[in-house]
Structure formats: C-alpha cells, structure tokens
Amino acid sequence: MTEAAKKNRYLTPVDIAEGLLDLDLVMSVYDRLDTGVWIFDFDHKRYLWANQKALDFMDAEGLEDLMSRDLSADMSPAVEERLNQYKQDFCRQDVSFEEIWTLYPKGKAQILQINMKGVRLFDGRMAMLCEARPHQEQQPETVRSAEALLHTTVMITLFTVEGVPLYRNTASRAACCSLDTTLKGQFVDPRKGDVLMRRVERERNSRLVANIRTTTGPRWHEMTIRACHDAVTGQPAYLVSEIDVTELHETKERAQYLASHDALTGLSNRTYLKERLTEVFQTAFAKGQRATFYLVDLDDFKLVNDTLGHAAGDALLQLVSEKLKELSGPDDIVARLGGDEFLICHLEEDDRQSPDWFGQALLGAFSSPQMIDGKPRHVGLSIGYAHYPEDGRDIEQLMRHTDLALYQAKTDPQYKCVRFHERMRRLRDEHNAIRKDLERAIEENEFILHYQPIARTSNDRVVGAEALIRWQHPERGLIRPDEFIPIAEESGLINDIGLWVAWEVAAMQARQKALSFDVPLSMNVSPRQLSDPAFVDRMQRMPVETGCDPSLISLEITENVLLGDIPQAQDILTTLKETGYRIVIDDFGTGYSNLAYLRNYPIDGIKIDRMFMDDIETGGEIVKLVLSLASALGASIVAEGVETISQRRWLSDNGCNLFQGYLYSKPVPETRFLSMLETQSRIAAM
Ligand code: C2E
Ligand code: CA
Ligand code: CA
C-alpha cells in the first residue's frame, strides 16, 4: 500500500476515484466546524483526538497538548463513575446522550451541551465520541440543576403514560437492567407496578417501597411518581424518582422478623401471631372456610430437658416444629407460644374430612419413636382443638377454648386429641370459683385433718396413721381433698395449705407423745411443695419448734417427683431425710415404677396403690411382683384400700405386714383416733 493510499483508507472508493478529496482535506473540514468534536478514551482517561473547536473549548495549545493531559489525575470519583456508566451503556446498546456538562480546562468553567455516542476503536475497546456546542442557556440556575441531575444518586426517569422511558438520568441508567425497561417491567412483583400505575392515574402522585430489578440484582427502592408533561412534546408523562433503601428496608425487615419469630424454631412467636391470625380469619370468613385452632403440647418435655440436657430439648423442639410445618398447609399458621407449646391455625380446604383428622395426623406423625440425641425416643403429644365458627366466634374465645381442650388432653392418659366442649368451660368456671374460695379458706383456717389408721395384717394392731386433709366449708360442709387438692396444686395454693398440714402433723405427733403414744404418722407432700424453699426450711425447724420426733413422721411423695418434674429432687429428699424424716412412695405402681431410679433415692417405705386390691381377687400376681420389688429396696410396705378380710389375709400370707383401708377404719377425727389408741393400749394391758 502506498503512503497516500494508507492515508486515504477511510475515504470511500468513489471519493478517491474522483480525486477530489483526501484525508487532510477531510480533517481540515473538522477543524472548521463550529462544533467541538473529540474522542475520549475511557480506559486511559485521555483524549484520543479533537478538532480545533474542541481544542478551543479545552484551552489547548494544540492536539499534542490536549492528548498529553491525563484526566485521571484530578477526576472526582463521581465523574469516574459516570464515565464508566456511559461506557457500559454504549457497550449494551447503540445509544446517544445529550447532556450539559461543565468542564474546567485550566480551571475556567466551560458550559457545554454535549452529545455522546459510543465508538469502537480498532483494538475493539469502547471509546466515546463527543460533539459539543457552547450551552446557549447560561442561566446559572439551569446549569446547576442540569449538573445536579447528572450527579445525584436519586434515580430519575421520565416515562410516557404507557410506561415507556423517555429520559433517564445517570443514576437511573446505572440501575436499570435495560435502557428501555418499562415502568411496570422493573418490578419484581408486577402487581406492585399495577398498584403504582393505578394510584398515579387516580391521585396524580404516589409513593411506595418496592422490590426492583436492577443491574446489581433485586433492590428495594422507594419510588415517588408524579403525573407531569414531557417538556419537549408537551404530552402527559410520569416522572419517577427512586432511591435505594435496601439496607434500611432489610434492617427493618430483620428487626421485624426477630421481634416476630422464635429464634430456635423460626416459627411465628406470640407477638406476631395475633396479627397473622386476624389476616387468616378474614380470609376464612370471606371464603366461608372452616378454621381450626390446635394447641399442641409435648408430654414430659421437662424430663427430656432435665435428663438429656438443653441441647437435646432444643433439638426436640426443632424436630417438632419441622413436623408441624410439614403437615400444615401453605396458608396455615404455625407458631410457638413458648416452652413446649405450639399453636396451629389450620384452614380446612373442604369439610368432608373428619373434624379431627389434622390432630390425628399430628399424633400419627409421632406414633413411632423419634431420633433425639442419637437415640430413638417416644415423643408424646397432647392436642386440644376448637373449630371456627362452631366452638368460638373470635380469636380470643377460640384461644381460650382450645386451651381448655388441651388441659383436658393433658390430664387424660387415653384421649390425646380433644375437642373443646361447653362442659370444660363450666368446669373451669367451677375451678376458678373454688380457687377463690380456697384463698379465703386459707385465711379463715377452715381445714382439719382426719387420721386413717395403719394396722398390722397379722393382728389388726394400729401401728400408725395417715393424716388426710378435709375442708370444713361454712356452707358446703366437709369437702374431700380430691375436690380441692388438684386445684390447690395447680394454683400454687398447695404451698400454704401444705405448710399448715406439716405443722399440724408435727404438733399432733408431739401431742400424742405427751400422751405416751408413739405412733408414727404419715403426711402427704405434693410435688410442688418440694420445690418450695419455705417448706424445706419449715420441716428443718419443726422438731425444735413443735417438739416432734421426725423419725416418726413419714413424708408421702408420688413417683413423678423422682422422675424429673423437680430438678434437685434428690438433694431436697436427702436434706429432709438427714433431718430425720422418713420418705415413703405413695400410690406405688401407678406411675413409672422403675426400680433403677428408685435406688437413687433415700426411700424408707412404699404404699401399694389401692387399685392393686382388685388384682388380689384374681391371684395377685402383680402385687407379688410389687412386693418383691419393694423388699429388694429394703423398704417397708403398706397396702392401701384394703376393704375385705380376704384381701387382708392374702396380704398377710404373702409377706405384706401393714395395711390401711376401710376394713379397719375410715379416716377419723384426731380425738377419735386417739381414743382408738387408748382402747388398744388398755386391751394390751389386760
Ligand atoms: P391418698 O394419699 O392415696 O390417700 C388415700 C385415700 O384413699 C384417702 O382419700 C382415703 O380416704 C382413701 N381410702 C383409704 N382406704 C380406702 C378404702 O378402703 N377404700 C377406698 N375406696 N378408699 C380408701 P382422701 O382422704 O379422700 O384423700 C384423697 C387424696 O387427696 C389422697 O390420696 C392424697 O393424694 C390427697 N390428700 C389428702 N390429704 C392431703 C394433704 O394433706 N396434702 C396433700 N398434698 N394431699 C392430700
Ligand atoms: Ca397418701
Ligand atoms: Ca395413696
């Protein structure tokens, strides 16, 4: 190629053929233009070429001077970012921008209206072709506002009323996935876009926070939209300004999430529940759907926590919450109310299902052993439920009724999924009335103790007695303990009542000693009393304060005390035993009856539950077994509820030396019991 041909390479063959033009001439034409033209190298931040007008604008001596300027030296990050943006825009699409720029060649402000386009260099890189004219409108206001529009991080876009973009400022261009993305097209959830469009049509302006697709993934934008007119065409348009509020939004969401969810299971917590229930109820109500409240409570959860540790307890709660989520429908609510109690609000798809199918499914899911702490274990559930609308008309009422049903399920060993019934409410009302009345009875000291003799099976000789409480009600007469002790236990009033019983029994023991009887006495101690420090303290001071002999007082406790309902049960029992009291297991055989754990406790005696008397009629195999268990522990044995001579004879024949029951005597007042002792000692003296 000749020099001339090389130089002329950019001219069309026609031009060259005609011989009228050459590159120098073309270039000189550029220099005579009134428009400044230059090419800018994005990557090196330098001018690659400029015509004379551009040199004038830039106050440059010549092309070399201009090309030698390294603009990166004092380029602000904002300008750099903007240039990068242009480059990206040009790479993505063949676009041009018309903008007003203020340049500062040699420190002098030069306001130019610049048109920018992308141009590919021979090495494939993108550069920028600029055409600039002095900006006509040199009003400082206009200049500054144009500058502000370029620099602001607020994304500003002008759309037609159909949502087609007419103009985007730099920030808007940087964020949008494609320059022609429509107003609605940028929403992650298009329904939000509809909401915004409808609102602006109706109210002329609107604001919302929405999830928007951007070049950096979905972001949260606060959008303000205003109806206006396009200044160029005069057509109606929408001006949208957006700011990125992702961090703020996410922090807020997170805080809200933490406040509304249970950290361990990720289920809704109590706080959030109310809000969601209201929503679900509105849906159920609108669709005429039936909703069911379920309260699920784990049986013996405390036992898992106490015996396997808190990590195993946590794992169990997580396992249960996973199962509950798995079984419930997408619109159902599953919440942890605290501890081991869960609430499910289940929406019935159709009502052909049996009313408790969901509760039964829950029970079914736990009917086989679950892996906890690496071992398969049985997890028992109690479930109470109530239907909307039959069992309650609002959330509060349903919650209360479901709770009553759960209470019933917890106390019933057989039916673990129980529906609310009116009678439960009546029962609860009665309980509440009794509890109030009990508070008064404690104040008024309305309790008395009766004593039921314990006698020898061989010769009917009285060798002790159990103190049994009665309530002398001013209107209702004598009330048996079964009617009020469970309520006292549940409400905690048993602690006050128990302190009184303990004092009375100790005092009675001291009194009969003065009458020169030294018959051992038994008193019942509720599990709850053992965790009451006042009780243990009172028991320790009792021998000094009343003059009783603690070795002649037995404390009757039930087996579940030993099973972990009370942490430190072993320590407390040991303390009581060290003070001198005897420890006796009451109602033996009705609970877990595990010899292995009985060995860990300082047990002196066992009372075989009344229900085993029926067994005696049919051979007494179980009683024999219980008797051998007891003797292996070296404990004394009392058979309870002995009503017939044949039962007593059988016991005597099978090595059970002591009995208590109607056969000998019902529980009687103290005076009557003392006179029994007197008669007995008179007969013995004869
Ligand atoms: P318990 O400790 O098992 O007491 C034995 C119960 O069986 C007594 O009922 C007694 O009257 C009854 N009984 C005794 N012999 C026979 C019999 O041959 N046949 C039948 N059918 N029953 C018999 P009571 O006095 O009504 O007491 C009921 C329960 O109330 C007691 O069961 C005990 O758990 C609780 N209780 C009684 N007094 C107290 C107390 O002072 N403190 C605490 N915490 N609980 C008490
Ligand atoms: Ca007892
Ligand atoms: Ca008993």
Automatic annotation (TrEMBL):
Q: Which InterPro entries match?
A: Biofilm_reg_signaling (IPR052155), EAL_dom (IPR001633), EAL_sf (IPR035919), GGDEF_dom (IPR000160), Nucleotide_cyclase (IPR029787), Rev_trsase/Diguanyl_cyclase (IPR043128)
Domain GGDEF intervals = 289-422
Checking Pfam families in the record gives: EAL (PF00563), GGDEF (PF00990)
> Taking every annotated instance into account, which residue ranges of this chain make up the domain EAL?
431-681
Q: Which domain of life is it from?
A: Bacteria
The residues forming the signal peptide are none
Protein name (record) = EAL domain-containing protein
Q: Species name for this entry?
A: Roseibium aggregatum
Q: What is the lineage of its organism?
A: Bacteria, Pseudomonadati, Pseudomonadota, Alphaproteobacteria, Hyphomicrobiales
